[in-house]
Amino acid sequence: MLLAMSRNPEEPVYNRIEEARVALGLSRQDLADKAGVHYQTIGYLEREEYSPSLVLALRIAKALNQEVSELFSQTPFKKGK
Amino acid sequence: MLLAMSRNPEEPVYNRIEEARVALGLSRQDLADKAGVHYQTIGYLEREEYSPSLVLALRIAKALNQEVSELFSQTPFKKGK
DNA sequence: TCATGATGTTGCATTAATGCTACATAGCAT
DNA sequence: ATGCTATGTAGCATTAATGCAACATCATGA
After folding, report:
1. Which chain A residue's Cα is nearest to B4?
2. Which CATH number fits domain A14-70: 2.60.120.330, 3.20.20.70, 1.10.260.40, 1.10.340.30?
3. What 8-state DSSP symbol labels residue B8?
4. Tell me, what's the ipTM?
5. Any idea where the HTH cro/C1-type domain is (chains A, B) (predicted)?
6. Which of A64, B7, B36, B72 sits most deeply, having the most CB atoms within 10 A of its CB?
């Protein structure tokens, strides 16, 4: 499995989308609808196969009621918050 | 002049990169070096001709010692902070 | 059993973001 | 006048992010 490749190779972006989404009881399709993207895109992001554009990150953060910095990071998240 | 077009048309992203950069006494080239991008890319972003990837937004925020949400927004910034 | 929903996988097409080069302009020193 | 720095503009090439479709798997529930 490939890591999320930004335009700057070897610089993955980690996220807690799935954790936040599940905590709200949302399916990927639900979140995709709220964020206005294809449901597969949520899957790719949760699997960290690529990192989103800033606009998408902003939309997802809003849909999940989180700050961008709470959801996305260049350094891995510790588990369980 | 075109507004920044994300992959979702008609959804610009506003930013305060220039304001924050100038406040630190940095040239675009300086900021570009710190963020690891081409200096023209900073220019495009400051003119809001396009919106950055999330990774780039994170790197710029770090280079400017600001939160992503302080630098980028889907709604226009009020002037002077 | 059958259906349905949620998720994973693969593949293809489109386009925006970025790198890079070259040139122009304006200001500010010297 | 000459040079240097910062910036704007334009064009071209590459690639990652996204949309979308098809199919598979696995639960769960009727």
Report:
1. A55
2. 1.10.260.40
3. S
4. 0.85
5. 17-71
6. B72
